[in-house]
Each structure stands twice: as C-alpha cells, then as structure tokens.
Amino acid sequence: MNGPRLSETAYAVCLGFVFLIPLAAAGLALMNTGLGRARSAAHSALSALCVVGVAALCFFAFGFALEGFLDQPAHTFAIQGKPWNWLGAGSPFLRGVHFDGSPEPLAALFGLFAASLAAIIPLGSGSDRWRLGAICASTAILSSWTFPLFAHWVWGGGWLAQLGRNYGLGQGFLDTGGAASIHVVGGLSALSIAWLLGPRRGKYTSERMPAAIPGHNVVLVVFGCFLAWLGWIGLNASGALLFAGMELGRLPLVAINTTLSAAAASLTAALITRLRFGKPDASLCANGWTAGLVASSAATALFRPLAAALIGTIAGAMIVYTVEWLELYLTIDDPSGAVSVHALAGIWGVMAAGLFASPVAGANAANQWLAQLDGVATLVGFILPLAYGLNWLLNRFYALRVAPEGERQGLDLYELGAGAYPEFTSHNEDLWQR
After folding, report:
1. pLDDT tens, residue by residue, 160-215
2. What ranges do the domains of the chain cover?
3. Considering Cα of 405, then 406, then 407, then 413, what sign does the dihedral take?
4. Alpha-carbon distance 388 to 185, whole Å?
5. What is the CA 200 to chain-centroid distance, rounded?
C-alpha cells in the first residue's frame, strides 16, 4: 500500500489542521472535569495535563516506532503466500524520521496528538476515584503499546489496512479520523478502568440501584463541546489528507459532515430526553454532541451530508439509552459516559463507514462492511482483553484506586492539597452514603 504524497500546499494545509487537534483534547478534559464532582475538579484538570505529557513522551520514545507509517520498515509474516504487516520496525525516539517535507513527520505529529487524545478518554470513567500516579502509569501503557499497535494495523499499512488488497474486502479497513484507532481504543480502555476501579462511594444502594450523581459544572461541559468541535474538524480533515490521500477540494465536505453529525446527535439526545423526562438533559445532550463527532470520524470525507446527519442521529439516540443500560444493568459507573460516547459510538461510526462511505475513485467497493466488521471484532476480541489485562497487572503492583479516605475527602485535597474552588463550600452529604 503506497502512502499518499502531499503537495507543498496540501502539506501546509494538513499541518494547520493537525495543529487544531489539541483543542479536542482540551474539550474532553473540560467535559471530564465538569461531569465529575467539585471536590475532584482540580485533580481532573491536572490529570488531563499529566496524561498529555506522559502520552507525548511515551509516543515519542516508543509509540511511533511501533506505529510506523506507510511504506516504512515493518515486521511481516506470510499466509498462503500473502504478506501481512503486523508491527512497525522503526527506531525509538524518532530516529530515522526525516523532517524534509515528507508525510512521515506529519504522521508522527498526528500520532502524538492522537495518543494524547486517546489517553484522556479513560479519565472520565475513573473520575473521583483514580489515583494520579496510576493514571500516569496506565497512560504510559496505552500510549507506548495499545494505541500504537492498533494504529499501525490501520494507519501504518498493517494487516487491517491490507484486507482490501489481500482479501478483496473493499478498500481495507477505513478509519481516516480515528473513530476506531483513537476513540474505540480509548473507550475500551475506559471500560477496563471502570471495571477495575468499581463504582464510586454512594453510587449504588445495597439493592444495586444507581443513585444520580450529577456533574458539578455544566458550563465547563458545554464549553468543552465547542472546543472539541474545532479539534474534530482538524482531526478529520488532517486524517483524510494524510491517510486517505483526499484532495483539498473535499475539506469543506469534511467540516460539513463533522458538524452535521454532531448537531444531529445532540438534538436527537435533546428530543429523546425531553420526551422521556419532560425536560432536555444538558449532560446527555453534550455527550450526544461528542458521540456525533466520534461517529463521524471513520470516513468523514466519504459520506454524503445526509448520511452524516443520519449517522449522528443514530449516535445521539444510542447515547441516551446505553448510558442508562450500562449503569443500571451492568453496574458500570462511568461519570463522563466515556464507554458509550467513545467505544459504542465509535463502533457505530466504524460500521457506518462500511454502509454509507463512497469508495475512492478506482477503489474496490465490494464487501467494505466485512473489512469494518473485522476491525470491530479485533477491537472487542483483542484490544479490550489486552487493555484490561495490562491494567489488571498494573493494579496488582500499583493500586489504581485511591484510599477510601481520599474519596471521602475528595481527590483535590487528598492528592493535591488544595481544592479547585476554595471560596465555596462543597455539599458533602453524599460522602456518607454507602
């Protein structure tokens, strides 16, 4: 598989869009903070900053060497005479990357930002009970191994990308903006963390019925949605140029589809919660917005605008019900809804690419949905057990969850020694619930 070559103009435009990606991380960080408790707000914000730092350093040191790029050295094996690429064979610390205007340095920068974004996702599922040191250790695992491994299979010319050439499954696995590589990987890591940490104190009664613990600052959550919107346009546009070789003329379509998907998802969540509860739910509407962004990311440049709106509508409906089902029936305490927003909406977006994406000119259009299904099966059947197993091992040597006293006191005071809102008194009556 030959990597796309970018003209000087396309290179500059792509670089500009890559520079927008950190806004998506900032948006998710604000949403995680706002959806958590006030007494852990500073801890949540600092954790996001630490996660970005750890992820960037680990991806620089080891991650990009494993992810690689199209046409770069890789470990391969043959099955029935066909080569299958399974892991990058680059040098650590970006040695061998030539900053000469080739697409490879752009891919390294994109991957560094993408690894940071994926690592922020689990923060929301572990809100109010995940130790800062354990967060950093888990981030190192994700950004050094789990994320680069799957990213190589998709963006580095790996075996999922080769399904089209080797087995005639469409264009191979499609994921130009990271619906699978960033969001499902991050969302499945979030699910692993939520399982290992267990629910927050006071979340469930003795009869295992969930109690509502609303987020403390919906303004932060909604402002995070606007930042995420800009970041996602950069993510989807740069991914379309870098990994799919799209022409510059399709970039307006990328921005339109990203916006339509998010808008349809948010309004669908507002309508459903209005019908069910009598009033729209702000946090679910915000989660619907983000779910629409996630679902758009698999092949944004290849959707028609009507299809993008439909994809967002289904993602918004999914969020309202899956957040409730995970909490009620599986007793998964996920304060930010990360599992629904990123893992489940990302899986829907991946499959939607197989159903609605138009093939690139001259590309095979047959059986694209099978290539997408192979990717989903790999995520659920391999990446989820891998993420859970690695974090389980970490938990055996370095406890993930803060001590009960820390959770009662709040992570701000317990781990940082100061609260986010020292001028205000927190209402702590839920501290004594069991």
Report:
1. 999 998 988 989 999 999 999 999 999 999 999 999 999 999 899 888 889 889 99
2. 8-423
3. positive
4. 11
5. 23
Crossing angle of the two packed helices 218-244 and 103-125, in degrees rounded to 10 = 150
First-to-last C-alpha distance (Å) of the chain:
56
pLDDT in tens, 13-35: 999 999 999 999 999 999 999 99
| H runs (alpha helix) in 126-250 | 132-141, 147-155, 163-167, 185-197, 218-244
E strand or H helix at 307: helix 305-329
Half-sphere CA count of 321, side-chain side, radius 13 A: 7
The CA distance from 372 to 351, in Å, is: 6
pTM recorded for the entire structure: 0.95
Residues with Cβ within 8 Å of 427's Cβ and at least 6 positions away in sequence, in order, are: none
Q: Which residue has the tokens 């963390």?
A: 193
Q: Cα–Cα distances in Å, from 390 out to 116, 124, 137?
A: 18, 19, 11
How far apart, in whole angstroms, are the C-alpha atoms of residue 123 and residue 126? Answer: 5
> Identity (one letter) of the amino acid at 305?
P
In single-letter form, the type of residue at position 70 comes to L
What is the C-alpha to C-alpha distance for residues 46 and 18, in angstroms, rounded to an integer? 24
Find out if CATH 3.40.50.150 is the number for domain 8-423.
no
Token pair, residue 349, equals 């977006």
Rounded Cα–Cα distance for residues 315 and 337 (Å): 13
CB atoms within 10 A of CB 59: 29
Report whether 24 contacts 77 (CB < 8 A): no
Whether 343 shows a pLDDT value over 70: the answer reads: yes
Q: Can you tell me the distance from the alpha carbon of 55 to that of 47, in angstroms, rounded to the nearest whole number?
A: 12
User: What are residue 17's phi and psi, to 5 degrees?
Assistant: -70, -35
- Which uninterrupted H or E stretch holds 338? helix 338-338
Q: Under a CB-based contact definition with an 8 Å cutoff, are residues 61 and 144 in contact? A: yes
Among 354, 434, 398, CA closest to 173: 354
Q: Which three-class secondary structure state does DSSP give residue 170?
A: coil
How much of the chain, in percent, has pLDDT values that exceed 90?
83
170 close to 370: Cβ distance less than 8 angstroms: yes
- CB burial of residue 390 (10 Å; 0-12, 13-18, 19+): middle
In angstroms, rounded to a whole number, what is the distance separating the alpha carbons of residues 205 and 377?
A: 35
Cβ proximity of 291 and 323 under 8 Å: no
Phi, psi angles (nearest 5°) of residue 76: -130, 160
Which residues, listed in sequence order, are joined to residue 84 by a DSSP beta bridge? 77
